[in-house]
Amino acid sequence: MSAHVEVMDLVAQMKSAEQPFVLATVVRTVSVTAAKAGAKAIIRPDGTIVAGWIGGGCARGAVLKAAREALLDGKPRMVSVQPENLLAELGVKPGDDREGIRFASNLCPSRGTMDIFVEPVLPHPSLVILGASPVAMSLAAQARQLGYHVTLAAPAADIAAEPDADVIIDGFTPSYLNDTRRFVVVSTQGKGDEVALRAALAIKAEYHAFVGSRRKMAALRKKLVAGGSEAAAVDCVKAPAGLDLGAITPEEIAMSILAEITVERRRGQRTANPSRS
């Protein structure tokens, strides 16, 4: 089996396991270089190259720096490693960015040029749903269609039909959650509201919401705080969950919740769209 096939096999395995990594690919070389076009490497968030090879120290530092940045912002980038005389001819310095290309200096004796495409591969955003109400079931199904990794946690006795979820947990305490952007919704609707909310508050997430009225949440807040939950954390729970779209049916309520989560997920990522100007 070739090294290229081994790298792509591991890419498939890591994607399936919802693990974050960078796939670095040499797309162009000029003159003498250690790695040739088509060479690939898998880089973990800690900077470890776990498979493949893209050359020695001449390119390694610049690629690892670009990999760390790509994992933080989720955007691919191109790194061009060139000898300093060629950078000078282009009018750029090591570390400069021009038209989407990050330039770096090749100080190795080979004095070759390598262009490396750095592509972050991130886990799907995680939606954790506590409860098995009709809204919870519809929310799970709709979220999967939008590319979320869905964990549904509820007592097995409360689950009337097989949920459309990636992971199903018996009870309100997920044993393992992917290390990715996370959104949590409690949709117990009367079946273990307080217990589920306590479990939700223990989950680190960008968004916590409760499917219930403000009055009901206010009553639960008193119990949660009296039981030791931090008042500030409880107050961050959005209740009722979802945007005010006038939703009535479970499907509509689920859609309004996903709309609200989408606003949170895309905050700061939206760019001008010429078709809407």
Automatic annotation (TrEMBL):
Gene3D superfamilies: NAD(P)-binding Rossmann-like Domain. It comes from the Bacteria. Residues 16-81 form the XdhC- CoxI domain. Signal peptide: none annotated. Residues 127-261 form the XdhC Rossmann domain. This is XdhC /CoxI family-like protein.
